[in-house]
Design goal:
mainly beta; OB fold (Dihydrolipoamide Acetyltransferase, E2P); three-stranded antiparallel sheet
């Protein structure tokens, strides 16, 4: 049993010796080379004493990534007539991704009505809540639904705070009225950008 305790306490990197083949057979995360069971991943050993198999459980989990159908928050970093590029930073629960992802909002994914140019509805620095449409990078995003769209922004004229009114967004400092694609959840953001 002392040997079992020794093996269980190991911190392993790929290629490290775990035990000899006579002690345990290699399971997931392990392999055999010249009579030695070695680790294939960075992790810790898990022993199955009944089957006499050693598994190496990876320490790192698969990184969190947006999935089709999920809701995300992002910042608009580029606007063109027909599309906008968004830096996706966290999911709808407010959990930040370890690295930002790139998303694209096509003009057809902003409204069911005709839109001449995205400049009318989105601006640089707008924080948007969007739905992911695919599982690959760049992620295609939509903001057509009422709960989707801009959740935080500032005045294009003076940079002041915009307040949601019946006619759109109104700047509390210069009085400019802006008709952007605003979410029904405007002002309620769950992610620190």
């Amino acid at each position: 049993m002392k040997r079992v305790e020794e093996i269980s306490k190991l911190k392993l990197t790929p290629g490290d010796d775990v035990c000899v083949i006579e002690e345990f057979l290699p399971g997931a995360g392990a392999y055999e080379h010249k009579g030695l069971v070695k680790s294939a991943v960075v992790g810790t050993p898990k022993l199955d004493l009944n089957l006499r198999v050693v598994y190496v459980t990876p320490l790192s989990k698969k990184p969190s990534m947006p999935e089709a159908g999920s809701l995300v928050y992002g910042v608009v970093v580029l606007v063109k007539d027909e599309y906008a590029v968004v830096k996706i930073v966290c999911d709808a629960k407010g959990t930040r991704y370890s690295t930002p992802f790139t998303g694209v909002i096509h003009i057809t994914q902003v409204s069911d009505k005709y839109v001449k140019s995205l400049y009318e509805l989105l601006g640089l620095g707008d924080v948007v809540k969007a739905k992911v449409l695919n599982d690959s990078i760049p992620y295609n995003l939509t903001i057509k639904e009422a709960r989707l769209g801009i959740v935080a922004t500032s005045c294009r004229v003076c940079g002041g705070k915009l307040v949601k009114t019946g006619e759109g967004l109104k700047c509390s400092e210069c009085g400019t009225v802006d008709k952007r694609r605003v979410s029904s959840e405007y002002g309620h953001i769950k992610c620190v950008i």
